[in-house]
Amino acid sequence: SGFIQRVMEVRSALPVEVVVADNVKVASRTDGFIVGSKAFHPDVYLYDETRHDIKNQTFKLEIIKSERRLYLPKGVRVAGKLRGVSFSLLKEHSHNFYHFMFECLPKLIHFQNLPYLSALESDCEQINILIDENIPGQCLEALRLVVKFPFSLVLVKEFEVYACERLIYCSPFFNALDNTSYQHFYPEDFYVDRYAVSLIRDSFSDWSS
Fold first, then answer.
1. Average pLDDT over residues 147-156
2. Three-state secondary structure readout of the chain
3. pLDDT of residue 53
4. Is the pLDDT of residue 200 over 90?
5. Confidence at residue 7, expressed as pLDDT on a 0 to 100 scale
6. Are residues 70 and 63 in contact, defined by beta-carbon separation less than 8 angstroms?
7. If you average pLDDT over residues 132-156, what whole number do you get?
8. Would you say residue 64 has pLDDT above 90?
């Protein structure tokens, strides 16, 4: 009879990792990447069919005898190859204002605060930033305000895949496992990371004063 009330609870922050991978493919509306015949996606391997909804994204999940496999359905096409260094801000809801501002953009801010950015800049003229083609105008303006290095925007359409010569991947700050069908709410499945929020707040504090 009704959903259980969501009680506020402090969760342990996920470790945020930034990795560099060569010769990978990035799919639209998907927070993951493909290397050869292997695919990586953080949420898919946390998915529990007894408590989570299957996300609407380009990667599809298939479970056969408890073995999980990711695949790209028919209709997905390779739109091009990006030379040099790329950074993906794609996610299943990255065309939404909230999801872009608090799940995607913090990754870019976190990355550009790391010490080895200068080494990457010396190796390339600019970094490709992959974003959803339907990103709101406010998000695009916010991105242009906070990025401190030369970049080129790549607008990715739904069902498109880009091959990247070198990809910088930043892992999620927090879990975002959907639950609209099951009555019990599990706090570890969805929460907002304070550090991610602080990155956005601090980045725009100078502009608001």
1. 93
2. CCCCCCCCCCCCCCCCCEEEEEEEEEECCCCCEEECCEEECCCHHHCCCCCCCCCCCCCEEEEECCEEEEECCCCCEEEEEEEEEEEECCCCCCCCHHHHHHHHHHHHHHHHCCCCHHHHHHHCCCEEEEEECCCCHHHHHHHHHHCCCCEEEEEECCCEEEEEEEEEEECCCCCECCCCCCCCCCHHHECCCHHHHHHHHHHHHHHHC
3. 67
4. yes
5. 45
6. no
7. 94
8. no
